[in-house]
Design goal:
Layout: H1 2-20, H2 42-55, E1 62-68, E2 71-78, E3 87-89, H3 94-107, H4 132-136, H5 161-175, H6 179-189, E4 200-201, H7 202-208, E5 216-218, E6 222-224, E7 228-229, H8 234-238, E8 240-242, H9 243-254, H10 261-267, E9 272-274, E10 281-283, E11 288-290, E12 297-304, E13 307-314, E14 319-325, E15 327-328, H11 334-337, H12 339-354
Parallel strand pairs: 5-15
Antiparallel strand pairs: 1-2, 1-14, 3-8, 4-7, 5-6, 9-10, 10-11, 11-12, 12-13, 13-14
Helix pairs in contact: 2-12, 3-5
Length: about 350
Amino acid sequence: MNSKITIIVTFCLLFFYTNQLTAKTVSATSGHRLTKASNPNLPRIKQVISQTLNDSTVPFSGTLILLHQGKPILEVSEGKDINSQSEFVIASLSKQITATLTLRAVDEGKVVLSAPIHQYLPNTDFHSSITVHQLLSHTSGVSASGKANLFTPGSQFQYSNLGYSLLGQILEKVYQQSFSEQVASFAKEFGLKALSANTGKLKQLQLKHPKLAFGQHETKTWQASTLEIDEALLPAGGMVASSNNFAKFQQLLHSGQLISPASYALMTQAHAHYQYMWPNMGYGYGLRINHTDGLKEYSHMGYLPGYMSLSLHYPQTDIDLVMLENLSLSLNDFTRAFALQTQLRNNLRNQLLSSTN
């Protein structure tokens, strides 16, 4: 019970800060503007990302992979018993998987984006006009069953793990198969061996996944994570993957191999704009969207007690970065907690905007 309370408090803190602290961030703009696809200076980018990790003022334990056109140009593994095959709880990067599975259901005609969720979950008392689209784009305002909606569905943006949990339930209804089984089938079909979705405490999960790195959470001291993944958390933040497997998923997604062009266009379209720790941010389906200085960026971050994650994709240069960590820094200093993620993102953006061969 205590572990679940910790997760809820952590998410509440994270959502508050991500929606309120834009003024404390520094823009990643370099003074340049990308007007067309360019050839990135790969040696320089590799050097800058390596240097960013080396110069970090916050601890790093995990793996990072940087790719160009799907091929690794930099792989880093750091920390006790961490190697390139290590697996991690990927936190909110899970939402990209859930959004993809939902859009595959749309492509198969099993789910309609504009349909009210009561069409799929009839025995619930959520707001009657909430749609699948609104769950995907965090514009539903959904609140716990039996409680008033946060706002009129579709009128505002409010990041919601509950919304993605409901998407998992909808998928279970339309396929008559557990969400975990659907993820397993998806992973098998596309060769994503290290991607999984299972419930339990970390020690239980390690019995199934020996390569899972055990998380450490920073309080006054470093403590072993007490994270427990239940069925509600799985679609929103509870999946497990390695950095190279998630990067492979990202490449499959953005090269058009997982969903239809129409669904991909909706996934990468900003359906809402909102205040975030990085400026000028929109949200699509499971992706944060940014087009500052003409540079298209599809990203997400994740945070759970014991784990942090980052994914970046730049379609104009076909550059991907995935970082998974088995530590979580204290949210008492939010800027410090996400300093490495922000610096990696800013430095990579600046290189893509200013460096060409």
